[in-house]
Amino acid sequence: MSPEADPTMDHEAIIRVFSTVLRDPAVFEAVAADPDAGLAELGLDAATREAMLAHGPGRLFAYHRMVHSRLRRTVRKLIGPAAAVLGRERLHAEVDAWIDVEGPRSGIFRDVVGEFADWAVERWAADDALPPWLAPLAAHGALRWRLRNDPRVVEAPSEAKIDLERAVACNATASVQRYAWAVHRVPAEPGPEEAPEQREVAVAIFRDAKGKVRELELEPRLAAMLERLLAGQTLREALFGACEATGQALDDEILKETALALADWCERHLLLGGTE
């Protein structure tokens, strides 16, 4: 009989135990040393312990190893080239430290990986022993991961024309990210001495209609304008606000560049057209 079909087992309690054993190394060690006493300490009644141990405590330990292994593999994919910079041993130690100190809060695996990224990026930014660009590199990789799994729908292009006095329809997944290093240029497998160029960059990042994550580096005025459009400003407000923010006077050349940028962004599915 499988554990799922065993009527003597308190399945809700077992789920709680699995969660605790996965998150707390001390609890895992206690259960490994004395399964019956360890499970009793976690609140399982005698009948549930007996039924569970009849299937062998090895299942619990195997599940522990499987989940931790999967989490480490997924984190390596999540932070992309930052994982290569950290190295396998340091990354594994960071995942274990996170589980020990904070641990997952969500029951959805993709969200658990994102929780680790949020914790790790802040930790790495404060670590003087690590390259100063590692944290933003990891953050950028995590953002790409989240976009691939983002449940928001990328709408079809609008039939309305873009109007100077109206807001512009935008891709719901789009954002403008600003970094002090060109982390978006780092290859997936960076060399041992490879480091991103140190310069201020603005990068539009979004998921297109086919579900692929796209990036587009923007010059300062266009980045400022796109940020304003994404915030819901009218095209006029965004255009004049961007010129003011970058210290430029609106002229025919800027109007021409703006028209070309809007057409390009619509073609890329970064913008979706006008609004009614």
From TrEMBL:
One Pfam entry name: NGO1945_C
Domain of life (superkingdom): Bacteria
Domain NGO1945-like C-terminal residue range list: 172-266
InterPro entries: DUF2063_N_sf, NGO1945-like_C
Sequence intervals crossing the membrane: none
Name used for this protein in its record: NGO1945-like C-terminal domain-containing protein
Native source organism of the sequence: Plesiocystis pacifica SIR-1
